Amino acid sequence: MNIGVVGHVDHGKTTLTSKITGQATDRYSDEIKQGISIKLGYADACFYKCKTCKGIQAYGVTKKCQLCGGERELIRKVSFVDAPGHETLMAVMLSGATLLNGAILVIAANEECPQPRTIEHFSALKMHGIKHVVVAQNKIDLVTKEEAIENYKKIRKFLDDEGYKDVPIIPTSAHFDINIDALIYAMLEYIPVPELDITSPLKMRVVRSFDINKPGSKVESLKGGVLGGAIICGTICEKQKVWLYPGITKPIELTVESLNSNGVPFKKVHAGGLIAIGTKLDPFYVSGDQMIGQLICEEGSKPLMTQELEVKYSKIERLLESNKEPLRCGENIVLIIGTAAHLGTIQKIKGDILLVTLKNQAVYYKGEKIAISRLVNGRWRLSGYAETR
Ligand code: GDP
Ligand code: ZN
Questions:
Q1: How many CB atoms lie within 10 A of CB 389?
Q2: Does the beta carbon of 60 sit less than 6 angstroms from any atom of ligand 1?
Q3: Residue 66 dihedral angles phi and psi, to the nearest 5°
């Protein structure tokens, strides 16, 4: 399953993610040997629970129990969809929330709540129907007990107002490793394993892409581009023929040369966490995440493709800074469709129906939810959502 880590800038998302994914480093050497994506493994974690010990400290990201020294049992593998430092990718992640099965919302205890980005990210989760959220009330080391309780009440009110009444709020200090076990416990308790649709035709969203060849590699030993992403539904097998949309100048038929997750090769993979596909695509077109936003599908799940899109728009009232003025004709907006960010221009507005022309080909399904961002003080900010017709 995939869990997003979201929240206002500097509230501790990256620090917290690195604490949760903890022991991930020793896997990397194997991955390098296999020549497939280390980036994808970056934010994967295994959660363990001690069979003999009781309480929250029985949980952790290490096999060895901190309490009794015994061996813990592996209970869940989770991919954390946090792109440290990538604000733009983060927006993509948020909106491609079809990928997410739940989220950790990080809120700093030493600042007023809610901050603008807290509202924005939360709105994105809500709009995509992500109900399973755990709040990390982080930086608890920087406030007094009384201040922490005051801040807790504000977080609780914010969640209540949004209709998220059962969300657990875990006080943490990512910096001092406080309550990471409690956060893991809360994720396991409150974010259920999703029901995976493995029978529908394949749909996979690309979230990373790489050239895995070292500089100076010999032509004979060059490997094709690697596409990393999340399977939304269906299964994918080695040697299977799949389509890449919108492709490069046009959709491309590809053979799946290899499948790899967490440094482990697979013959067949179904919907769930993150996966890397080895292809024979020219690495030139794939390097440096150029393939972000592409869709991998099979015959029965081919999407629609267009550069002119008609959508039904709904603004999110709570997002005040981006909704000061109504949308206008000629305005440039960003539409996030799946994991692809598209620059568009509004051509016509008729009630809540927008006609938008796009700079590049968009790939979509009927009735798909699209996040719409507007330019506010030089930055793209979520303002509402739209549905394709
Ligand atoms: P992000 O922008 O949300 O990813 O935040 P970062 O993880 O980059 O953290 C921002 C800053 O806050 C960094 O300097 C961290 O070291 C610091 N930080 C993160 N968590 C804590 C915490 O629990 N306590 C304290 N005192 N500082 C923290
Ligand atoms: Zn134990």
A1: 10
A2: no
A3: -70, -25
More confident site: 244 or 120: 244
> Which numeric CATH code is attached to 203-301?
2.40.30.10
Confidence of residue 253 (pLDDT cuts 50, 70, 90): very high
Total-model pTM: 0.81
Confidence of residue 380 (pLDDT cuts 50, 70, 90): confident
- Which CATH superfamily hosts domain 304-388? Translation factors (2.40.30.10)
pLDDT tens by residue, 20-67: 876 443 333 443 333 322 233 356 788 899 999 998 989 988 889 989
Q: Which atom of ligand 1 is nearest to the CA of 8?
A: 3
Residues with C-beta atoms within 5 A of ion ligand 2: 50, 53, 65, 67-68, 70
Is the pLDDT score of 7 beyond 90?
A: no
Contacts (Cβ under 8 Å, ≥6 apart) of 244: 227, 251, 252, 253, 254, 281, 291, 294, 295, 296
With b for 16 or more beta-carbon neighbours within 10 A and e for fewer, the 220-231 pattern comes to eeebbbbbbbbb
139: Cβ below 6 Å to ligand 1? Answer: yes
pLDDT at position 25: 34
The number of CA neighbours under 13 Å toward the Cβ of 106 is: 24
Q: What is d(CA 10, CA 300) in angstroms, rounded to the nearest whole number?
A: 43
Q: Where are the domains positioned within the chain?
A: 2-190, 203-301, 304-388
The CA distance from 135 to 172, in Å, is: 10
For ligand 1, pick from 5, 6, 10 the residue to mutate: most ligand atoms within 8 Å of CB: 10
